[in-house]
């Protein structure tokens, strides 16, 4: 795997540099769904600041791709999936230790290029002939959620199977991760795409228009995280998991458009002493 070889090279380079300066470096390798890129890079930077001598290296890709890499023995310490199905696949492969914990939730959204050449006004228009539609490939979590949305639409008299058939007829490309879907729409290579609402990040916000998908058809995506079996530093890996699920980690995820996955702590004062739960 090209990525794994590159990652090993980086790890070796970091290790050699640490020896040169006489300071040991602890490296944490995090495999994470591509939709988490911005939020996790921010959390990773904060984690490094709070843990001097720690370097966090990320491998962002579609969750199904990450599971395939883990199943083939790729080195990793933490795995964050965009759905429970792929986390279960990693467990079945014997690569997860402990119980995965949900740390974030997400929602589906429809995006179109800012100039909207297909004149799409709502997700109901995705059945119209001639629409160039891009979605994620089978096995990618956002595709699973898209299929669940289509199932709900097919059962609604206002849409039905006719809508679903028209939607599928318009699919021109199936991407290996959700960020590739976003890129094609932002570049005007497609008329529309189904992504997560958190994917409409500041750097592409002026390049796309976002349409909400009604709650009756939308799907709440759940993101689980866990320590990878065989990690070289289980304590550090668990610390990163705890950081992601902490109030600070949850606030970062919320700023990047995710729905909090861990209930916010509540505190009351008992004889002037804060008691939190």
Unreliable spans = 1-5
Mean pLDDT: 89
CATH topology of the largest domain: D-Maltodextrin-Binding Protein, domain 2
Order of helices and strands: HEHEHEHEEHHEHEEEHHEEE
Oligomer category: single chain
Count of DSSP helices?
A: 9
Shape: elongated
Any idea what the radius of gyration is? 21 Å
Q: Give the C-level CATH assignment of the largest domain.
A: Alpha Beta
Report the CATH superfamily of the largest domain. Answer: Periplasmic binding protein-like II
Largest sheet descriptor: 10 strands, mixed
The count of domains is 2
Beta-strand level of the residues, as a percent range? 25-35%
Q: Terminal Cα separation, in Å?
A: 44 Å
Describe this structure in words.
With 277 residues, this protein is α/β, with parallel strands linked by helices. The protein folds into 2 domains: 2-105 and 222-267, D-Maltodextrin-Binding Protein, domain 2; 106-220, D-Maltodextrin-Binding Protein, domain 2 (3-Layer(aba) Sandwich), CATH 3.40.190. It has 9 helices and 12 strands. It has helices spanning 2-21, 37-50, 63-71, 84-92, 141-154, 160-169, 178-186, 234-245, 247-255; strands at residues 26-33, 54-61, 78-80, 96-113, 133-136, 171-175, 192-196, 208-212, 220-228, 259-260, 267-270, 273-276. Helix 2 (37-50) runs antiparallel to helix 9, helix 3 packs parallel to helix 4 and helix 5 packs antiparallel against helix 6 (160-169). The chain starts with a helix and ends with a strand.
């Amino acid at each position: 795997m090209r990525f794994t070889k590159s990652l090993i090279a980086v790890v070796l380079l970091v290790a050699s540099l640490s020896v040169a300066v006489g300071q040991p470096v602890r490296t944490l390798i995090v495999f994470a769904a591509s939709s988490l890129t911005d939020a996790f890079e921010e959390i990773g930077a904060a984690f490094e600041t709070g843990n001097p001598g720690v370097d966090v290296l990320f491998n962002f890709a579609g969750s199904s791709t990450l599971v395939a890499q883990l199943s083939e023995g790729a080195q990793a310490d933490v795995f964050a999936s965009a759905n429970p199905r792929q986390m279960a696949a990693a467990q079945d492969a014997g690569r997860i230790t402990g119980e995965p914990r949900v740390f974030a939730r997400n929602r589906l959204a429809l995006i179109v290029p800012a100039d909207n050449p297909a004149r799409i006004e709502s997700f109901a228009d995705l059945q119209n002939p001639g629409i160039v539609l891009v979605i994620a490939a089978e096995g990618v979590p956002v595709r699973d959620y898209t299929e669940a949305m289509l199932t709900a639409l097919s059962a609604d008299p206002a849409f039905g199977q006719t809508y679903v058939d028209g939607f599928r007829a318009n699919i021109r490309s199936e991407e290996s991760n959700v960020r590739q879907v976003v890129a094609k729409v932002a570049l005007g290579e497609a008329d529309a795409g189904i992504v997560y609402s958190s994917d409409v990040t500041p750097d592409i916000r002026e390049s796309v228009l976002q349409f909400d998908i009604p709650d009756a058809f939308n799907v709440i995506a759940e993101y689980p995280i866990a320590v990878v079996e065989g990690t070289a530093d289980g304590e550090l890996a668990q610390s990163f998991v705890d950081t992601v699920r902490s109030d600070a980690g949850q606030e970062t995820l919320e700023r990047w458009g995710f729905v909090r996955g861990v209930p916010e702590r509540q505190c009351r004062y008992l004889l002037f002493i804060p008691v939190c739960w």
